[in-house]
Design a protein that fits this description.
By secondary structure, the chain is α+β, with helices and mostly antiparallel strands. It has 34 helices and 16 strands.
Length: about 850
């Protein structure tokens, strides 16, 4: 997302970019830049896909740095920082090319439509923000005394001119530099080198990279800028064969001819970064490698019937099937089908000779570096991330077993292959790791928030997230249950009946405690809904309710499920008793009567045993409002379309807001789903959450929150999070003794100090949060913050949809809105109950339709 940043220049390069607001700057001398307030400069940092990449574009509004007027095509100017000056007593890997130029050496011009081609995602807020843990400005190296000012020379246009170019008309080193003046590569090259440089400076990461990996990095550092740019484009693309001409656009052909691209790609192949296509006799495989446009041309050239068909309508696999079928049906003069096929394969190899693909081992090396740099992507998609604390026992998952492959298999509905991969391969690897006492003991000695970066945790998440899901879609419930039991107890016993308390493996309990509730819930659904084994399901639920690692919302969900199972058991028991009463012991078989009475006795025992299960009562008010809807006369549409005045298809939340404003006189309303409450929590206790003294929670310069925030109790129980001897728990409780004005002053203080930071606080909602705080009062804010601090990961979601307040009489209310067919979840019910318990007006608002509006005016049908 775009982030406005400030650029300053000094003698060394810091580890992070400062992201403060900036104005037009002009160059006064060789080493400094002053910021003026006349014209605005926007410096955009772009972070697409998995790797955050930054692009620094300066809108000079027709002026160059020196103040001179420039052409219209020079509105955007690219700034390339050079390498930082390094201390004499340390040696770091240098990933920047020798041909890279600083802003003082060369000013490369970029065309105006650069931003459109970047495809930058829109950011909701225009606020300037900066990294939360790096506050230093990004600094450029001093100007080199041997730098040469850039002059547009007449460069060679053909291969012969390029090979015979003697450099008389321009310095030889500018030949390569001119060819790198394209619209795509500069900012990606800059950030790519920056990321690798920072990883190379981390001495604690050295053990993660083998000698072969270091050799790969050294080879990359010696590449020319153009070779680096092309390699980066290949790296950021999908891993498949490509034609050289697809790497450049038509607008780049003049500045970056194809023969230069070919030369760079051959160099990359020689160094092992790229692979060429191997000799293959399989015709469909060769055709599948070819680009779709080349495939259409090739098909029309060698197949007579393909010339008469519209190949543009055919998809690639359909085109390949038609080509192979047409080729087999073509008559041969010498009646030798193999000769004709060999001829086509030979022509295919000639056509595919220039095709290249990224080397798998090289790709893994650079992805490893980017995973280490990108710890800010703290989600389930980054299971392959590894950090310094696990350097001694990391086991990297192979490419055919990683999460990216599993996602692709699921997306293609290849559940059979995905299930087989997880059950046979991943499960066996987990068993081997679990049996390694040294590995597991070391893993359990680490903090919980660091365990998720281990190979055991990665494989366990893959087994549950993809393996179990695929097995259930294939209706292999036995295998799915076997995997779930293994993740719960570290056991593979199929006859586990949960009748007596089961002791889980201590290593499993320590590493996967956060996910045990999900395992219990999925296993209970399988046992009751699919396998119809209600007794085992109830035994499992009883075990889960006594497990202290299960979160509150999962416990409530399982409790509700046990009530439904008991209800079905009572119904079944009634049917069994009726059936048994109809049996005549004198005429029926004695065994049949005994079987029925035995089943009845078991059902009665289950009813008695689980009827005593109690859960704290969930209390909240419920209100129902009716609003006009369009009649469903549009065919098979099931969607309920609400009307509000002249507006059509109004969301149910907007209907509820309109109702509460008119009926209950609220003048402020916000549909934020708890964002205001989370904003208050992070703002009031910003210094505790972002305490830099806490070890092993700040490992990346891109983090927006500490690693341990998703660990239950970590914020409250941390001994390091103390300010003036006061812990976070004491600070939250102290809010009860403060006035509303003191809370507002604390919020304003946080805003002034940290408003430019990218963090947990949504600064766009800050004014609304302050207004809400003035109505809620210290006691309610303290209670809500304590709820969040206990288990932020599970309690950050489930907040009511709406928060409404009146600034005049200081009333406020929270409302969960549900439309037709929508049910309240466990988390939402718990939050409504929490608000009610602390004296907040909390309601569940059900919006239903009133069929009094015809489809068309005057139409009563």
């Amino acid at each position: 997302m775009p982030v406005k940043m400030r650029l300053t220049q000094s003698s060394s390069q810091s580890d992070m970019f400062s992201t403060q607001s900036s104005k037009r700057f002009k160059k006064n001398d060789e080493n400094t830049m002053n910021i003026d307030d006349d014209d605005e400069i926007e410096i955009l940092a772009v972070y697409p896909a998995k790797v955050r990449e930054s692009q620094f574009l300066v809108n000079l509004q027709g002026k160059e740095i020196g103040g001179k007027e420039s052409a219209k095509s020079q509105d955007l100017q690219h700034i390339e920082p050079s390498n930082a000056t390094k201390p004499d007593n340390k040696t770091y890997l240098n990933f920047s090319s020798e041909n890279s130029n600083s802003i003082d050496q060369k000013n490369f011009l970029v065309k105006e439509n650069m931003i459109e081609l970047m495809k930058t995602p829109k950011k909701r807020s225009k606020r300037k923000q900066k990294s939360i843990i790096d506050t230093e400005d990004y600094e450029n190296e001093q100007k080199s005394p041997n730098s040469v000012d850039f002059v547009p020379y007449s460069m060679p246009k053909t291969r012969d001119e390029y090979e015979n170019f003697d450099g008389n008309s321009a310095p030889c080193e500018l030949v390569e530099q001119t060819y790198q003046q394209n619209r795509y590569g500069c900012f990606k090259l800059e950030i790519f080198d920056q990321i690798l440089t920072r990883i190379g400076k981390r001495k604690d990461y050295e053990i993660l990279f083998s000698d072969a990996d270091q050799t790969t990095f050294c080879k990359y550092s010696n590449l020319t800028s153009t070779c680096k740019t092309l390699f980066i484009r290949v790296f950021l693309r999908q891993s498949k064969f490509f034609a050289p001409e697809t790497l450049i656009s038509k607008d780049e052909e003049k500045s970056l001819p194809v023969f230069v691209v070919d030369s760079c790609l051959e160099n990359l192949c020689h160094l092992g970064f790229l692979d060429k296509i191997a000799i293959c006799r399989n015709l469909p495989d060769l055709l599948n490698v070819m680009d779709i446009e080349d495939l259409r041309q090739f098909s029309s050239q060698f197949c007579s019937t393909m010339r008469k068909t519209d190949t543009k309508r055919l998809k690639k696999h359909e085109l390949i099937e038609a080509f192979v079928k047409d080729l087999s049906n073509q008559p041969s003069m010498d009646r030798n089908d193999n000769a004709r096929k060999d001829h086509v394969i030979k022509k295919l190899h000639e056509r595919l000779f220039s095709y290249k693909i990224l080397n798998d081992s090289v790709k893994r090396v650079f992805k490893k570096a980017f995973h280490l740099y990108g710890l800010e992507f703290m989600s389930a998609r980054n299971l392959a991330q590894n950090i310094r604390n696990l350097a001694s026992d990391l086991v990297y998952v192979k490419s055919d077993e990683n999460e990216e492959k599993l996602i692709r298999l699921q997306a293609d509905s290849l559940h059979q292959e995905c299930a087989s991969l997880c059950y046979d391969s991943i499960k066996s690897k987990l068993k081997n790791l679990l049996n390694d006492e040294t590995y597991m003991n070391h893993l359990c000695s680490l903090p919980v928030h660091l365990c998720k970066f281990s190979s055991f945790h990665v494989l366990a998440r893959c087994l549950f997230k993809y393996g179990v899901d695929s097995m259930q879609k294939l209706k292999h419930y036995g295998r799915a249950n076997e995997c779930l039991i293994f993740l719960l107890y570290g056991s593979t016993l199929k006859d586990l009946n949960f009748a007596s308390p089961q002791m889980p493996n201590e290593h499993i309990l320590a590493v996967l405690s956060r996910y045990r509730g999900s395992y219990y819930e999925r296993l209970a659904i399988n046992l009751n809904d699919y396998m119809k084994n209600r007794a085992r399901a109830l035994n499992l639920i009883e075990t889960a309710l006594n497990d202290h690692t299960v979160s509150e919302d999962v416990r409530y969900t399982l409790f509700q499920k046990s009530k439904n199972i008991i209800k079905s058991v009572l119904t079944l028991s009634t049917k069994r008793q009726k059936k048994a009463s109809q049996l005549d012991p004198t005429t029926s078989r004695e065994e049949e009567c005994a079987e029925y009475y035995e089943i009845i006795q078991k059902l009665e025992d289950m009813k008695t045993r689980f009827s005593s299960l109690q859960y704290p009562k969930i209390q909240y008010e419920t209100v129902t409002i009716q609003r006009p809807i369009l009649r469903k006369a549009l065919g098979g549409s099931r969607k309920t379309i609400f009307l509000l005045g002249d507006a059509v298809d109004v969301p149910v939340e907007q209907i509820a807001i309109d109702y509460y404003k008119k009926e209950q006189n609220f003048n402020r309303a916000l549909h934020d789903e708890g964002a205001c409450w989370r904003c208050l929590f992070a703002s009031l206790f910003f210094d505790y959450i972002y305490d830099r003294s806490v070890s092993d929670v700040w490992l990346s310069s891109q983090q927006t929150y500490p690693l341990d925030i998703h660990t239950a109790g970590a914020l409250l129980n941390s001994q390091a999070r103390k300010i003036e001897g006061k812990s976070l728990s004491d600070a939250i409780l102290s809010l009860n003794c403060q006035s509303v004005q003191q809370i507002i002053d604390k919020l304003n203080e946080t805003y002034e100090k940290y408003k430019d930071y990218d963090c947990l606080v949504d600064w766009d909602l800050f004014e609304d949060a302050k207004s809400l705080a003035s109505c809620a009062g210290p006691q309610i804010i303290s209670a809500i913050c304590m709820y969040l601090a206990v288990d932020y990961h599970n309690r950050r979601s489930g907040f009511p949809d709406l928060v409404l307040w009146n600034t005049s009489d200081k009333r406020f209310k929270v409302v969960e809105v549900k439309g037709p067919g929508d049910r309240i979840s466990s988390k939402q019910a718990l939050w409504l109950s929490r608000f009610t318990s602390i004296g907040v007006a909390a309601e569940l608002c059900n919006v239903i339709g009133r069929k009094d509006v015809p489809l068309m005016p005057g139409n009563d049908e």
